[in-house]
Design goal:
9 helices; four-stranded antiparallel sheet; elongated; single chain; 10% strand; alpha+beta
Length: 362
């Protein structure tokens, strides 16, 4: 019975006292929007006109920057290989593009801050069902946005904005088109303006010795140790370094090769390419087939080559096949052998175009 008495006492302790009420607070009231603060351009028509002039002036300044970037690309060519020309090319093209983008951005911000309507409004939630009234409301929203921004009425701002946007693309188009090498100015030369033909031929010819870069020293097969990797170029190309530096750089950029030695049993060679290597020594183009960056990192345990620009990986043991990354095809292989003196030589040029795969190929 003592247990029952304790239970009743506990129940009584948790019974609400007579006359006790629970207070419920009122919900938080919507404070509403703050008072609208008019800008100077809202109160003074002259200030509004000045703001409009500032915006379209900035947009036209952006157009001028884009045009200057293209002009600088032509006025300061880098084909000569001169360090000063390269410096001026980068400096003035960069200044032009910076002026174009900065003026476009500042003009857009000033337009939104000083000219577009800045009145606050509340958009009520509504069901997300597609109805005729919804479509009509969407059309009205576009019309209101056009009215508030002044896009339809302020033709100078609109036209200058279109001009700045179109012009801002032009420097990029010109610079990317310049990636295609041009060997000369002779209009009758079939190679001029034809990247496919240009990248289909390099300095390598039958019997050309492989030489170390940059010393130009020919390489004996016996000097290539297991697991080693050399950057090599055609031996006959080296003298041009001092005779015609521009031609030297252009041809070296296409003909540069990585030379590696694996155990012969580690190579998985196709039947038609078994004689392209010599005692486990293989040679592949160093120019990545993605966008042309130098493939420079070799991991001798896995036999993988890595392009540091976009992380494409190639398997040297399997004809430099792509195993990772955006590259679209394997690195072109240079067929090699040795001459009577034991020096490594090329059997021929590459049998396919070197470099990026975005050029059209036959």
């Amino acid at each position: 019975m003592a247990h029952d008495d304790d239970s009743h006492a506990l129940d009584r302790a948790y019974e609400p006292s007579a006359g006790l009420s629970v207070a419920v607070s009122d919900p938080v009231q919507n404070p509403g929007l703050p008072p609208h603060r008019e800008r100077m351009t809202d109160k003074d028509p002259k200030a509004m006109k000045a703001a409009v002039r500032t915006v379209y002036t900035l947009f036209y300044l952006s157009v001028a920057g884009s045009i200057w970037a293209v002009a600088a690309y032509m006025l300061f060519p880098i084909e000569s290989g001169s360090l000063l020309a390269i410096r001026h090319n980068n400096l003035f093209i960069g200044l032009g593009i910076a002026l174009a983008l900065l003026s476009l951005g500042i003009g857009a911000i000033h337009w939104s801050k000083a000219i577009m309507s800045d009145k606050e409004f509340v958009e009520d939630r509504h069901p997300t069902r597609g109805r005729d009234t919804t479509r009509e409301a969407a059309i009205q929203a576009f019309a209101d946005a056009n009215e508030e921004s002044g896009f339809g009425r302020r033709t100078m701002i609109r036209n200058s904005l279109f001009a700045a946007l179109v012009a801002s693309i032009v420097p990029g188009v010109v610079l990317f088109r310049g990636l295609a090498p041009h060997p000369g100015s002779n209009p009758n030369d079939p190679l001029v303006g034809n990247p496919v033909a240009l990248l289909s031929r390099t300095w390598w010819t039958q019997g050309e010795r492989l030489a170390r870069d940059p010393s130009g020293t020919p390489i004996r097969a016996a000097d290539v140790t297991l697991g080693s990797a050399f950057q090599v170029m055609p031996e006959s190309l080296y003298p041009l370094k001092h005779e015609d530096h521009g031609l030297y750089l252009n041809e070296k950029a296409k003909a540069i090769v990585l030379l590696m030695r694996l155990r012969p049993e580690e190579l998985n060679e196709a039947e038609d390419r078994k004689d392209w290597s010599y005692d486990g020594i293989v040679a592949y183009s160093k120019v990545c087939t993605h966008v042309g960056c130098p493939v420079a990192l070799y991991e001798q345990n896995t036999h993988h080559l890595l392009c540091p620009c976009h992380q494409s990986q190639f398997d040297v043991a399997n004809h430099a096949a792509v195993i990772f990354g955006p590259a679209a095809r394997p690195l072109p292989q240079l067929p090699i052998t040795v001459d009577d003196e034991g020096y490594l030589i090329a059997q021929s040029d590459f049998t396919e175009p070197v470099g990026p795969s975005f050029w059209e190929r036959h």
